[in-house]
Amino acid sequence: RPGDGYGSAVDLVEGRLTVGAPLEGPAVNPMLEVGTAYFYAFNPSMGEWEQFGPTLRSDEDIASLGGEFGAAVAIGLSDLPRVVVGAPRSNVNVDSLENGRVYTFEATGTDWESLEETPMFGKGPYDRFGSAVDMANDGLRFIVGAPGREASGGYFQIYEWTGSAWVLDFEEEGSSGDAL
What pLDDT digit, counting tens, does each position of 75-93 carry? Predict the structure, then answer.
């Protein structure tokens, strides 16, 4: 729909494409902006891009309204395609605004499966965790940026896949005013 931000974030790896639409609403009420992401695979025999699986979505709960799911996207190709999606304006609750969230998905047949029970959240209000994401080509590591408030220096974190869960592998914080 007009104004959904389709194409605000994109990533392309070996014939796989992910596109974010951080202002798109859910099918039940398109006016509620929660954001979405789309995954496409290039079909060489047809010479065209085809959407794979259903549209990727956030939790679509009250805290994710206006969260901009799809503001940052990245692809990794392990055994199955993996996608990491940032929602930097998502809230934890009404007292903790714009912490940000990051979601990870893996392709399973013709569908997507979340790789964690709940999304990963930023450490504090206005961190905007998920403003930037990138994933290693093998899909076993990803990095997420949280530029934070102007007074904070921001931070980034690197996560590694253990075979059953993402674990924090490295973290670096910026100095005040750096906005990493």
Answer: 998 778 999 999 999 988 7
